[in-house]
Structure formats: structure tokens, C-alpha cells
Amino acid sequence: MPLDPKTKQSKGLAYVTFTKPDNALAAYENLDRTSFQGRLLHILAAVDRKGKYEVEDGEGRTNTLKQDRHSKRKATAGKEFNWSMLYMNSDAVASSIADRFSIDKNDILNPESGSNPAVKLALAETHIIQETKSYLESQGVILSSFSSRARSDTVVLVKNIPYGTTMEQIRELFEPHGELSRVLVPPAGTMAVVEFEESNEAAKAFRAVAYRRLGNSVIYLEKGPMGMFTGEPSGVKTTGHESLTSNLPVIKVPEQMTGEATPEEEDLPSITGGTTLYVKNLSFATTQQRFESMFQHLPSFAFARIQMKPDPKRSDGPRLSMGYGFVGFKDVDGAKKALKSMQGFTLDGHALHVKFAGRGVEEDKGKDDKTGSKSKTAKMIVKNVPFEATKKDIRELFRSYGHLKSVRLPKKFDSRTRGFAFIEFISRHEAENAFEALRHTHLLGRHLVLEWAEEAEQDIEVLRKKAGVGFGGGKTLPGRKRKFELDLGKDNADDDDDDHDA
């Protein structure tokens, strides 16, 4: 529904897109010239513009291939998903570190300084990423939302900007396209976050600013994750602890039917990080916005999230609820009080069953345990390692966060690396610190992908069993002949039978 840029009111028209032409035709035949809220609807066929881009000709000359690619890339901006939402320009990282620590930029990138400049740059990027994450958290940003594929229509992440870009420059880029609700520029000045009041203005700004040149860099834009901010969305007002009531019976889970007691305070986990509640028995009709609005008035509220999954029948359709979610709080006392008040609360006809999430920290059940920040081992797998990186580079990068026990960089028969490495720390605490710090770091232009290694995968006996190889006990060894020892002195017939059975 397009809005007037001055009054922010509807223009009296709307666009509706169907996935199938037959459905659009049926809607036209049934709804055209029908009354809707006192007005007569008039439906027309709209022009479908899918990634259309124009090639301008000048004086009989066509654009170059580079110009054509730029126009096409600009037209399709924002339609692809990108996991590296904290991407930062390497030159901006080096400039930021050099300026703020009052050192020469050449000292960071000098290959004759005794250590690899690529490792220095990776460590500098890691430091700035940690600083940026701390700043975003202080501004009400939920960092856990960055792992979700759901995208916001009003939040834009501005990446690859040069060092020294100010908040006023970011505003000058986006304000001509709509009204801004907030602009965040971390102290490092290597990225920015822009939030619009209206989604159509954000889409207009996205198309206009994407891949524009700012200083000596080209701006990359990414749609921010859904539910990125803890603040209340614009235009949404809540009046307190309310629920939908109806004459239908309340739906409960088996634990509630059996009268399972609510945990008392002395039975709750004594872990300082126990600030996240696991909410079960959610209605599949409950939306993320409604779920958050129900509990955001609670003391020490931090975030609320419903676990989503892609629709198996429609790859391009909206994500579906998995029937459970998480509510986080800023402290343990707030979580304990909320547990009592939320237990059995009726939301959309379902009685909620609430308990602490796992060990008292947020756990994403739809996510592989190997990619979580907590582990049961001090060993990890580093994937997407550059082929130019050496074992010394990997050791130098990871030993900044703890004492290393071993570093393995597997190679092929021609001595080329395979693109992954195995890291083992002395303690699990040091491994978790390194995992959390380096999970967004780039080394020689490649984003390092970290996963926890299973303890059993390091056991040689387990590996032998997986390979189907038996050792001892009369089991078969592949590719080898077996030796039989026949005792013909007694019970020859029985021994022969046994040997044949063997």
C-alpha cells in the first residue's frame, strides 16, 4: 500500500501479488466492482517488474560490460541472503586501529615486522567486531537475531563504508528517501545501522543507495534481521498482560494435564546465565509480533522469539512456527518472576508451558549444536581456511585467545592444504572464548567457519568402528587372509563344523 511521502497516509491504492495466475484471475472476477469498507473496488492488471534494469545508450554507443553488470547488480540488490552481516572493509579496519591506537598503518601491514600481516589484520578485525557487538548491545540490539534468516523491511545494515564515516553522512544518504527512526554508527566507524519508519521508504532507499560510492569504497547494503531491536515497534501499543479469551477449551500439553508442579525458586538452576525461558505449547497462529507484545512489559525483559522453519511446500513462502519459543531477560531475578507469571498463561487458546532453557542460557533447537558457542570439548574444526594460509598462521591467530594443545592442517598428497584445520585448546573455557571471538573473522578474505568437533570423532576405536574394521576377537580384517589353527587330536568332526561355521 503506497503512502504519501508528506502526509504518511495511504494513496488509496494497493498492489497484490499472487503466486499463481489462476488465483489472480479468480480474485479479479470475484472482487472487481465489489464494496469494501464503503468504497467500490476497481481492480486492474499491474505491470510485473522483476529485477528489470535499463541499459542507457549514449550517442550510438552501448554501455560497457562493467556498466551493464553494475546496473543489473543494483537492480537485484537485497534479493540474496548473506550470512556475513558484520562484514567490514579491511582497509577501514586497518585505518581504524591505526588511528585509535596512534600507530602507523604500515606497522600493521608490513610483512617484514616479524608476523604475518594477514593474521594481524584478522586480529584487528576481531577486536573491532567485539567492540561493535558491545556497542550494538548497549543500543538495544539483540545479537542472537543475526542468526535468523527472517529479514526486516525497515532495518538496513550499511557495510563496507570507509573509516571516518560520520552519522551525519549516513543520514544525508538515507534521509532524502524517507523518515528515519534511528541511525547507529559504532565507534570503529566501519559499519552502520539505519531504521526507517515505513517499509516502502526503506525499500526505496535500499534501491537508491545500494552500490553507491562513498569516498574510496562502494557501499554494500543488507536487510537487518527480524526482531533486531528490543524496543517496541513503531505504532504498536500494548496495554498490559492480556490474552485472547473464547468459549473454546484451552489446549494444554501432557505435562500440564498431569499436573506437573511449577519449579520453586530453590529448584531453579543456580547458573548466573539462567536468564532465558523456554516457552512450549505455542499456537501455530501466534505471530512473532504478538508473542513479543504479550511479554515485553515484564520487568527486565530483553527479547522474545518464536522458532521458525521454512515451509516445505512453498520455498518462497513465509516461515512457519515450530510451536515453541524463547523469552530472555536481563537478569536471573526477572526470569524467575516471569516464570511464575507466564506459567499456564493462555495465549491464542493455548496454555503456555514455561521452563528454563536447557542450562539457563538461550538454546536454538533448530540449530546444529556444532555451531553453538558452548561445547563439551576443547576441540574445534575451522572450515573455509584459505589455501595460502599456513599452520603457523592458524596457530598465531588462535593462540591469542588461549593456550593451544595442538593444531592440525591436513594436506593432500601434493602438499596443498585441504581448506580446513583442527584446533585443540588446553581448556574448554579458552576454546569457547576463541570460538565467540573469531566466528565472524576473515583471514585473507575468507570468512572462517567454526564448528565444535565431537569428542568421539577423535577416538581411534570409534573411527575404526565407523569404518567397519574389526581388531581382535576373531573379526575380519579387510584385504587380509585369515589363519586357521586346526586341532585334529580330538573332536575332529566338531572342530571341522566349528571351523566351517567360522
TrEMBL record:
Residues 1-48, 154-226, 275-359, 378-455 form the RRM domain. InterPro entries: Mrd1_RRM3 (IPR034482), Nucleotide-bd_a/b_plait_sf (IPR012677), RBD_domain_sf (IPR035979), RRM_dom (IPR000504). Keywords: Nucleus, Repeat, Ribonucleoprotein, RNA-binding, rRNA processing. Its main location: nucleus. GO terms for biological process: rRNA processing. The keyword Lipoprotein does not apply. Pfam families: RRM_1. One of its GO terms (cellular component) is ribonucleoprotein complex. It is found in: Nucleus. PANTHER family: EUKARYOTIC TRANSLATION INITIATION FACTOR 3 SUBUNIT G. Belongs to the RRM MRD1 family. This is Multiple RNA-binding domain-containing protein 1. It comes from Amanita thiersii Skay4041.
